[in-house]
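Recall the central idea of this unit: under ordinary conditions, the amino acid sequence of a chain determines the structure it adopts. In this exercise we apply that idea directly, starting from the sequence alone.
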Amino acid sequence: MVGIKKVEYGKKQVLSTSDAIAYAVRFCEPKVTAVYPITPQTWIAEKITELINNGEMDSELILVESEHSSCSAILGAAATGVRTFSATSSQGLALMNEVLHVLSGMRLPSVFAIASRALSSPINIWADHSDMMNSRDTSWIQLFCESAQEAHDTIIQAYKISEKALLPVFVVVDGYTLSHVYEPVFIETKQKVKSFIGDYKPTHAYLNPKKPMTQGPIGYPSEYMDFKLEQQRAMNKALNVIKETNRKFKIKFGRSYGNGLIDERVRSKRVIIAMGSMCTTLRGLEKKYKKTKYEFSLIKIKSFRPFPKKELLRALSNATDIAVIDRAMSYGNAGPLFIEVSSALGEAGYRKRINNFIVGLGGREARIKDFEFIIKNIGRESYWINVNGGKNISFSAVI
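Accordingly, the structure predicted from this sequence is:
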């Protein structure tokens, strides 16, 4: 079990990212938690189980037989109008896929923590973003975190975002690379978190005999598309919900993450775009190469869904050379983040040199020298980094 030492609330202390997530969940008071253990998410589930068993967290814990069942249990609980929580990884998230669409289609708020991990085959338990990219079209908000503190804070924000946007939210940390890392984290207090997110007042609690409502009937061709249009509109509106929540969080807690959608301070015409824990390494290299011929600016994408096109295009307006780093692959095309970025540039009519680097699939180590190779080749050719010890050219693009 995780969490031997006693945690002091309202203070900074060294904790695992998994513990930091669990304590944030505790403060948000989900009435139902349904989890199934899967590496590397299990630490989150274990800590929450410990908090419930110790009487520190008031939540109905449902131990299910699979991730499909845990997501189904969350669906039923959320439909009664209570806060809910789950966590999973990789094949577990893939097994949930059927019910993920139902949760978002019913516009039920919920928050899931994802310790992102490679999908099989071959079997692999280490970090990459393939599980999240497999779920990108489920109409869930996806928020990627760089640090333990950001994960703690994003869980808190996620409940407010989900309940305002009427869409479920994934809070994503890189498996092992971040989920099992110990870092200094300021753990908030229950009172302060509660004053920020407020009491949950569901706008539509379906399973209420006093206010009966038909939910989940067949959607005929004459109506189905209208429901999907509403989901798209909700995603578009969520962009402002995320930004506003991040702004209010900064006022309340003194911390923020860019504007909630992207984190950027673009000063160079050479730009690298990335997500997740690798951004920490890139920040160090950004400082190292400042005022050299290899100077670059980092743009961290925090919200992959909804995708912040407007903010990204503004940040890239003066850039000439762009590199996009992916920890996943859309086989037969390119990295998913690269596809999003190049599509946004093309729609806007921007002409930029842009290339794609695929790194760290299945937990393969992305070394300093690999990132330095990327820095020196921004906007040139695209590569799979560190494939059998080499660098294989994949493709290049000018948008």
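The chain has a mean pLDDT of 93.
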